[in-house]
Amino acid sequence: MLRIDCPFCGPRDHTEFSYEGDATVEYPALDASEDEWFEAVFLRDNPRGPHSELWHHIQGCRSFLVVQRDTLTHQITGIRLAHQPTAEALK
Amino acid sequence: MRQRYNALSVLWGGLTGQKHWKQVWGRPEPKPHYDVIIIGGGGHGLATAYYLASEHKIRNVAVLEKGWLGGGNAGRNTTIVRSNYMVPGNTEFYEHSLKLWENLSHELNYNVMFSQRAHVNLVFTPSQRDAMARRYNLMRLNGIDGEYWDQDELRRHAPHLNYENGRFPILGAYVQPRAGTARHDAVNWGFARAATALGVDIIQGCEVTGFIHKAGAVVGVETSKGEILADKIGMAVAGHTSVLAHKAGLGKLPIETHKLQAYVSEPLKPIVDQVIVFGGIGHFYISQSDKGGLVFGGDLDKYNSYAQKGNLPVYENVMAACMQILPCVGRVKLLRQWAGVMDMSMDGSPFITKTDIPGLYLNAGWCYGGFKATPGSGHCFAHTIARDAPHEANAGLTLNRYREGRQIDETGHGPVPKLH
Ligand SMILES: Cc1cc2nc3c(=O)[nH]c(=O)nc-3n(C[C@H](O)[C@H](O)[C@H](O)COP(=O)(O)OP(=O)(O)OC[C@H]3O[C@@H](n4cnc5c(N)ncnc54)[C@H](O)[C@@H]3O)c2cc1C
Ligand SMILES: [Zn+2]
Questions:
Q1: Which of A14, A44, A73 sits opposite B256 (nearest CB)?
Q2: Dihedral angle, C-alpha B94, B306, B354, B250, nearest 10 °
């Protein structure tokens, strides 16, 4: 079991979350070129090591979290709310 | 020269203390140059080398494997072989592969224990039955075998299933009779032996750590055993594709690496005669090995991972699913559990293709269905490498299809690798 320390809810089992993949992907503007969209939708770094990824606390506070996790050791080294204004307000 | 295996030699060996067995592949040191290097000594890499040597007469070939032969997914899978696909691109490829399976033991002179015991997809709801009817009808239109067993017929074939389950009432099953299982180690060893006999060097303990580029082309690899040059280089490293693709200069690919677990029980008398699948509502598949162990699995762990070890929540889900359809095995002890890391593609389908880098060829995106592809993948990859053009069976399995909006998405889940 991975334990994810949600800034709202505290440490929770990863089964309360839905994994949403690479957090470094930035979706381009709607009228951006097809190439930019292709890259955002389909291409991934897929590192063997440190990975920045989104977890949705679907069975908790429903926040999206950005989790720094190593894909080889599964060690989690950082967690923050994905929504910047909420993260600021919580400080 | 290769020693031929046959019934008489087994009998003779039995009478003479089994002293007739010869070594079937050695431990060659790499030569400075090969016509073709295949990276990855899993089933696909070994099959590619075999077909390069046998069909295309390219025999100056090396397979470079960082660990040991078949230590990756080729030796970790649940060995299900089928071709019940319905989307063009997959349909012709997997049926091509199934046809190769049907003659593989003869072709390799090695018993790969391919057992066409039928793949039985259980149906629990009328809507599921409709959706599967569409799939199996499409298969039949494409010349692939498929049929429906109503509950009475299913009870005759699989009497031990739980037919009294109110929550998951088994209505019947869609079946591919020509599907089944094979012995995974035998497939790896059979291809390795046959390829070696044709002159292929299988070099274990040789990790590719980088690529040698010259004028925009790839002309060799850097390895833990030094530099090795080649005219053409094919990658077949399954879950580690992205790691090597970055080193080769291919950049990002439409792949996420995920892990899948498998389980095997203590040996039992025969109880599961086919491959039984509980799909759609749950996710569980089970067959019984010739040694008697129940071999089964379920979902991915569903987060990117290169760790070849599974997590307990999925374990629990798989056992729960098993108890829904086969509660009679609830007291059976589990013998082993393990995991492998797979190249989950964005549409759930693979690619066997040339790349934009001259000299570099790519075989990847197998998700958790690449064991059944082993002979087909090797056959088509060898063709693509030797002729610089795809075989008709892998013409649809390109990398460009994502850019062109022609994803081969059997399940319609979209570009979310964990869902395929
Ligand atoms: C638990 C599990 C169950 C599965 N069940 C089924 C099933 O029932 N049916 C089915 O069809 N498929 C199944 N699969 C999928 C199937 O096993 C794979 O898709 C298939 O084996 C992949 O091809 P391969 O055999 O070439 O891979 P692998 O055996 O993984 O071969 C890749 C090889 O590349 C080597 N390698 C990696 N990096 C390097 C490097 N830098 N240098 C040199 N070598 C390198 C690895 O060590 C490895 O040996 C399952 C997979 C798993 C994990
Ligand atoms: Zn929370």
A1: A44
A2: 160
Q: What is the pLDDT of residue B2?
A: 73
Same domain, B201 and B334: no
Q: Report all structural domains of chain A as residue ranges with CATH numbers, in order of start.
A: 3-90 (3.30.2270.10)
User: Cα–Cα distance between B373 and B4 in angstroms, integer?
Assistant: 26
Query: Where residue B331 sits, what CATH number does that domain have?
Result: 3.30.9.10
Q: How far apart are CA A51 and CA A69, in angstroms?
A: 5
Residue B334 lies in a domain: yes
* Contact status, residue B324 vs residue B169, Cβ threshold 8 Å: no
- For residues B54, B66, B254, A5, the Cα torsion angle rounded to the nearest 10 degrees is 150
For the beta carbon of residue B112, count every other beta carbon within 10 angstroms.
Answer: 24
Q: Tell me the DSSP string of B30-57.
A: PPSEEEEEEE--SHHHHHHHHHHHHHS-
Gap between the Cα atoms of B382 and B388, Å rounded:
10
- Nearest ligand atom owner, CA of B263: 1
**Exposed, middle or buried by CB within 10 Å (0-12, 13-18, 19+), for B276?**
buried
Closest ligand 1 atom to B341 CA: 53
CB neighbour list of residue B6: distance below 8 Å, 6 or more residues apart: none
pLDDT in tens, B339-383: 999 999 999 999 999 999 999 999 999 999 999 999 999 999 999
* Parent domain of B95: 27-82+86-108+184-254+347-404
Q: Number of structural domains, chain B?
A: 2
User: Does one domain contain both B335 and B191?
Assistant: no
- In order of B63, B196, B199, the CA distances from B27 in angstroms are 12, 11, 13
pTM value is 0.97
Q: pLDDT tens, A67-91? A: 999 999 999 999 999 998 888 887 7
Are B79 and B181 a contacting pair, CB within 8 Å? yes
B119 vs B176: CA distance, rounded Å: 5
Nearby residues of B409 by Cβ (< 8 Å), 6 or more positions away: B87, B347, B348, B349, B420
> Do B203 and B337 sit in the same domain of this protein?
no
Mutate to test the interface with B, among A4, A19, A34, A46 (most CBs of B within 10 A): A46
Specify if B236 maps to a domain: yes
B371 and B236 co-located in one domain: yes
Nearest CA to CA, how far is A86 from chain B (Å)? Answer: 25
Q: Domain containing B237 — which CATH number?
A: 3.50.50.60
Domain membership flag for residue B372: yes
Q: Are residues B167 and B219 in the same domain?
A: no
The answer to whether B353 and B390 are in contact (CB under 8 A) is: yes
